[in-house]
Here is the input.
Amino acid sequence: MNDAEVRATAEKDQELAAQIALIEQKYPRNEKGSRILHLLHPVTLFEQQTPVSEVHFRAVRTKDVRDFPVDPKSIAMGNLLDIATRIWDQPAALMDKLHGEDRAAVLELSGFLLGNFLGIGVGP
Here is the structure.
């Protein structure tokens, strides 16, 4: 590698480290290792008395992506939301009630976890 390539690689490594640190800060792990997303807009489902205020996400497994499109051009938001509902600890019906800001956070975190599973992610 020449000096320019070394610098470019170092810069990329620094960017990845910054992205990992941001994810670690925004979505800490619980005692089981799942990532925690605190909802900005808690949601009440069905007959629950207490609104759901946080959602826990586990790592992506092969069974979660069996029907995921192989061609990146074929991936729709629905595909990403479906994977999110497979890796969180709440009923899938919660997804349809999320506020836009919380949906964006779900996509960010599940995208991070999916990228790690596919080997294109930025960290643990």
About this structure: Helices lie at 3-26, 77-87, 100-118. The beta strands are 35-43, 52-57. The longest strand covers residues 35-43.
